[in-house]
Structures are given as C-alpha cells and as structure tokens.
C-alpha cells in the first residue's frame, strides 16, 4: 500500500519540527519506520569517568532515523590499528583515547546509529572540546587531537527522532542558548555551533578522520578541525537545503576559509552528496588517503617533533588573521606572536635540534594568551 501525499506531508512537518535550528541533517527520513531503541556502547577497556556535563540535559538514549542507507560493502569501516592506553567516556557518546605522545583520539561512539547527533551527543562533543581547551590536568601533555567516528561513519548528521523525543521545545532552547556555557567567559556560540567552533579554540592541532558518511552537522564538526583526512569513497554533504533550512553550525566561518563563494553556494543550495576525492579537489578536505587514521597518526608525529609553542602560535596566527583582518592587523599579529616565542626554552630546544642537540620541549602552549 502506497502512503498518501498527506501522510508524507505529516512526516515532513514532523521532521521539520524535530530538526531544531542549530543542528546538522542526515540523509533522509525513513517514512513509516519506527527505529529500534538506541543501544549504549559498552567500553572494552579500562576507562576513567569524567564528571557529568555542565549542561542542563542528561544524555538521551532514543533511537535515530536510519539516515544513510547504503551498501556497507562500498564504504570503509574504521577499526583502530594502534594501541590504546586510557579511555574516558563522556555520557557514553564520546570516547577519549590516549594514543601516547600527547595524542588524544576523540571518538564519536554511536556506531549503531552512524554516530548521529542526539542531545546527548551534542553535549558530549562540546564537553570534550571544552575540557581539552581549558582543563589543565587533561591537556597538560596534549600535543594533537584526532576526531574520528566508530563503525561505518564519521557522523551522519542529526538524529531527528532522538532530538524530538527529548522534547522539541526544550531541545530548541538548549541548542539556541547563547553562550552555551562551554566556551568560557568569552564564549560566542550556542550549543549547536560550539560542537564545531570550539575545536578552533583547543591550543593544539585538531585532525578529523573521515570515512563512510559525513553529512550535515557531521560535516560541520569536521570543518571545525585544522586538518581533515578522508577516504576517497567517503560521502560528504551540506544537506540542510533538503529540509528547507541553512547550515548554521559555524559553517559561515569555515567555508569562507576553504573555498570559493560560488562553490559554497552550489553545495549548500543543492545539498549534493560528493565523494572524498571531489571534496579534496574543492578544498573541503586536506587530503584523500586509503587509511586516514594512519595518515593522521603520521602527521601528528611530525607535528610533535616541533615546539608546542610554535605550533600553537601558528594556529593562532592564521585563525586570527585569515580572511578577516586587514594588512596592518596581520603584520602586527605576526610580530606579537613572534616576540612571545623568541628566547623561550622551546624555541631554543627547536633550534638546538637543527644542530643535533635533542633537548626536550616544555609543553607550555601559553604563547597565544595575553
């Protein structure tokens, strides 16, 4: 029996209501199907529990729409190849795994729901970014952050059903509340924006590892990273136009730095799904490789060999001047940051390594602060 047009209209209204402003979107709504209950992922290693999020909501364990039905055989599934040491679970949505040498892997962990974004996931991602930015005990030895997704996808976008069942009005208020509380005293974004934007505030390079599906809010989270490595068959989309909406999770900041305006408009207005290979050619991803996690670990190792102060200052230099500052501000910022580096221990250690003197770095990363 084919459902009537009125049926589909009711479904579209529900999805539009469920998709509160400030979130990303997944591929499609499975009309007439009630998804199964979301199952929490049990940790497989020893883990340390962080205190509950500062936010108003506790994690929700509702089902999500099966947003991205496709043949799993044509998509790459990420299985960690590198040893893990310490695992921290935040609300059973995020795993924070230490990979040694100051590398922390933040893993989106709702694999049975393609890591889609329910309210618990929004809170957990913002909490993770906030902790890595400001918690001195957690970031005192931090050198690189890698964001990845468990299972068949990086992140398929919004879990519309989960957000709706959490209470559409309360979810809307929480997602739009500005500031979210995660950005500190000078926080700018609401919760939906901070899951992407706050990665720019972490004082170390952030690398996103993309595979499977990277749609809507998932893509905007990836765009918040400093570098993005993707598989050639990864599927990416700015998908909000399919629901009559615009992307509003900091994408207006990210896209202007990465691509021409006409290309950004075309991808946003059409909601077209592109491959990792095309995303690389358009500037959305840094590089396409068969094993993006291996590439991320390799690049992280190259970064770790440099002074943590100069790496942090490099990130601050470009983010504070790229596309937004006038010439005078750019030149002044270069000099200000350089003066903070010259004569420090880490600058001397970096110079010494060029002459075969292997001095250890002090993990300060304070040069970007006034």
Protein model, in words:
By secondary structure, the chain is α/β, with parallel strands linked by helices. The chain has 14 helices and eleven strands. The chain has helices spanning 5-18, 119-134, 136-139, 160-165, 168-176, 191-197, 217-223, 251-258, 261-270, 276-282, 292-304, 308-321, 327-341, 345-353; strands at residues 47-49, 87-90, 94-98, 103-108, 144-149, 206-210, 213-215, 227-230, 235-237, 274-275, 287-288. The protein has an eight-stranded mixed beta sheet with strand order 1-2-3-4-5-6-8-11, sandwiched between helices. Strands 7-9-10 form a three-stranded mixed beta sheet. A hairpin with a 3-residue loop joins β2 (87-90) and β3. The longest helix is centred in the middle third of the chain and has 16 residues, at 119-134. The radius of gyration is 21 Å and the shape is globular. The chain starts with a helix and ends in a 17-residue tail after the last helix.
Mean pLDDT: 78
In total, the number of strands is 11
Report low-confidence residues grouped into runs of 5 or more: 1-85
Residue share in β-strands: 5-15%
Overall SS class: alpha/beta
Helix content: 25-40%
Most strands sheet: 8 strands, mixed
Principal-axis shape? globular
Distance between the ends: 66 Å
> Which value, in Å, is the CA radius of gyration?
21 Å
Oligomer classification = single chain
Specify the number of helices: 14
The main sheet orders its strands as 1-2-3-4-5-6-8-11
Q: Would you list the SSEs in sequence order as H and E?
A: HEEEEHHEHHHEEHEEHHEHEHHHH
